[in-house]
Amino acid sequence: MFSMNLSSSILYLVILIFSVVIHEVAHGYAARRNGDETAALAGRLTLNPISHIDLFGSILLPAILLVMHSPILLGWAKPVPVNPNNFVNQKRGTLHVSLAGVVANFGIAIVFGLVARFGVELGMPESAMGAVYLIVLVNVVLGFFNLIPIPPLDGSKVLFALLPARYAYIEIFLNRYAFIILIAFVFFGASFILEPLVKYSFIFLTGVPF
Predict the structure, then answer these.
(1) What is the count of structural domains for the chain?
(2) Is the pLDDT of residue 1 over 70?
(3) Is the separation of the CB atoms in 154 and 20 below 8 Å?
(4) Is residue 1 in some structural domain?
(5) What is the mean pLDDT of residues 25-31?
(6) What pTM was computed for the model?
(7) Which domain range does residue 98 map to?
(8) Within a domain: residue 162?
(9) In 10 A of CB 34, how many CB atoms?
(10) pLDDT digits 0-9 by tens, 72-124
(11) How far apart are CA 148 and CA 125, in angstroms?
(12) Where are its TM segments located (predicted)?
């Protein structure tokens, strides 16, 4: 589908950075709607990428995966600070905030999927369609990746919010070995688990073969 030459690789990284920034800002606004101003007070409700870039997650990891010709390119930004103790309803607030970033990414993918389907008919130059496809791809990947229940990904926060107290040992275990599990997943499990989801979602949204 994509020939990842130098220019398209740079474009992918730029789209990835802005997509993870939007993901984190969505968390911050969801926290504010639920009564927590921590992200706002920390100056994180901004689309300025400098406030959000994580050296490893936003730059080094995607670059490594590009060099390795990984079919799935992943990344993240610095998590926005959130204090669940400020939520009006802690459980509901945690769920809303945790899912806000994923909803933002899937929302972007849907909007640009429509652009991919109808943009040329509406006068968009075909030369711009490659960027549109990449925006869809990046945001579908981020949406599914963040649903994986490994800390600090959003899926883990949803899992922990819904997990009965008697299964607290699962949360303890995952938090203790989170980084090791996450890196192992990125390099050894992500393609196997995420690639089919990403492939068929991309085709569904854009109507273009993957």
Answers:
(1) 1
(2) no
(3) no
(4) no
(5) 98
(6) 0.92
(7) 6-206
(8) yes
(9) 21
(10) 888 999 999 999 999 999 999 999 999 999 999 999 999 999 999 998 888 88
(11) 36
(12) 6-26, 55-77, 97-120, 132-153, 173-194
Taking the mean position of all CA atoms in its chain, how far away is CA 144? 7
Choose the catalytic residue: 24, 37, 126, 171: 24
Distance between CA atoms of residues 141 and 124, nearest Å: 25
Q: Residue 56, Cα to own-chain centre: how many angstroms?
A: 15
Residue 209 φ then ψ, to 5°: -60, 145
In this predicted structure, the answer to whether residue 174 has a pLDDT above a threshold of 80 is yes
Tokens of 54: 């994580």
Rounded distance, CA 151 to CA 13, Å?
A: 23
Annotated catalytic residue 24? yes
Residue 200 lies in a domain: yes
d(CA 111, CA 185): 29
Asked if residues 11 and 89 have their Cβ atoms less than 8 Å apart, the reply is: no
Buried b (16+ CB within 10 A) or exposed e, 56-71: ebbeebbeebbeeebe
What does the alpha-carbon distance between residue 104 and residue 77 come to, in Å, rounded to a whole number? 14
Q: Is the pLDDT of residue 15 over 90?
A: yes
Cα 27 from Cα 22, distance rounded (Å): 9
Q: What is the pLDDT of residue 122?
A: 82
Instruction: Quick: pLDDT tens for 130-163.
Output: 999 999 999 999 999 999 999 999 999 999 999 9
- Gap between the Cα atoms of 71 and 185, Å rounded: 14
**Tokens coding 1:** 């589908």
